[in-house]
Amino acid sequence: MRYRNFILFTATIVGLAIIAGCSKTPSAQPMGDAGQTIVKIFGSEADTLDGKQSGYALLTVDLIAGPQTVYAADIRRNPPSHAELNKPLTVIVKNDPGAVSAYDATLTPMPDGSFTADPATPLTGNDYTVTFAPGEFAKRIRITIKDILALDLTKSYGIGFTISSVNDVNSKIARWEKSIVFAVGVKNKLDGIYRLRGYILRAGDEPATGWVGPREFTLVTTGTNSVRMRESHGWANTATIGLLNTIAHPTYTFDEANNITITSDGGPFPDGLMNMEGYHSRYDPDTKTIYAYATWAGGPTQRQMMDTLVYLRPRE
Predict the structure, then answer these.
(1) Is 260 helix (H, G, I), strand (E, B) or coil?
(2) What angle do CA 293, 297, 300 make, to 5 degrees?
(3) β-strand 289-295 against 251-254: which pairing, if any?
(4) How far apart are CA 232 and CA 290, in angstroms?
(5) Least confident of 8-12, 100-104, 274-278
(6) Which residues touch 66 (CB under 8 Å, ≥6 apart)?
């Protein structure tokens, strides 16, 4: 019995020795970015498949007079160690109107002088200076928009931020998370996407006369108490002709009692839209529904646009 145990013990030792002899010491692997602090703008992943070089986000402000301070770009650093985190770091972030235009040609960069930077991230010329104290890994750039009502609200505005440099050789700017465009979302209470169903009259033209919708339409803020239809309203669903631009994009202006005045790009009646007499155009805040009754050209016996728009969701 002792002899058999000895044989088993010896075989086990030999087996372990063989395994140990076959094992190799792992060779050192390159660390790549693992040894560097990565500096990026949080949430700025660029949709490169769509050809974008910047990320995108919405910056919502209220339609009120006077200054408004909002948080914008969120600058982050991802250090490889506590030692790197406990170093100070200075990051230069460029105010980048070019990024706005490149991302979306319909966006207008915020005009020079329309906003200021927070003293914690001062703006000198076109550069924000973002300083991380030891132990800090996140810093927000705050801006103050001086007066949103002083801008042309028929335009859509954007603000761009791009990291341009860091002052540490052991830090690296993230390639696809270094730039972001904020669309400035200026919205009043009627702004949004609606389901429209209505009736339109073009006397003497049967295909153009009849039901419109149900279809989705977008109402875009043009002032503190007005919105404009982005898409062309169009004639009836069966129409084979288009609606003139002078009346294709109704503007709804509401008062404190939620009464609505209807106009359009054509100017005063008869070239543009006006409220149809005998009907109450209004906004119902309880159901978020717009009732709009308009006429143009030859008046109600010749031209009618009678719509009900039910709110669906906010626009992007």
Answers:
(1) strand
(2) 45
(3) unpaired
(4) 17
(5) 8-12
(6) 147
Around 131, how many Cα atoms within 13 Å sit in the side-chain half-sphere?
Answer: 9
In this prediction, residue 17 carries a pLDDT of 44
266: how many CB neighbours lie within 10 A of its CB? 18
Peptide bond into 250 cis (omega under 30): no
For the stretch 198-257, pLDDT in tens is 999 999 999 999 999 999 999 998 888 999 999 999 999 989 888 999 999 999 999 999
Amino acid at 146: K
What H or E segment, with its residue span, contains residue 3?
helix 2-22
- pTM of the complete model beyond 0.85: no
pLDDT in the model for residue 19 = 44
Across the strands, what pairs with 109? Answer: 158
Residue 66 structure tokens: 């006077």
CA neighbor of 166 nearest in space, from 118, 120, 130, 202: 130
Which phi and psi (to 5°) does residue 66 adopt? 95, 175
CA count, 13 A, side-chain hemisphere, 184: 31
Contact of 191 with 63, CB cutoff 8 Å: no
- 77, 37 contact by CB (below 8 A): yes
Per-residue burial over 283-297, b if 16 or more Cβ lie within 10 Å, else e, is beeeeeebbbbbbbb
Dist. CA 189–CA 258, nearest whole Å: 11
Rounded CA-CA distance 204/209 in Å is 9
SS3 content of the chain, % helix, strand, coil (to 5): 15, 45, 45
- Secondary structure of residue 83 in the 3-state scheme: helix
Amino acid, res. 239: A
For strands 138-145 and 68-78, give the pairing.
antiparallel
Length of the chain in terms of residues written: 316
Q: If you compute the radius of gyration of the chain from its CA atoms, what whole number of angstroms results? A: 31
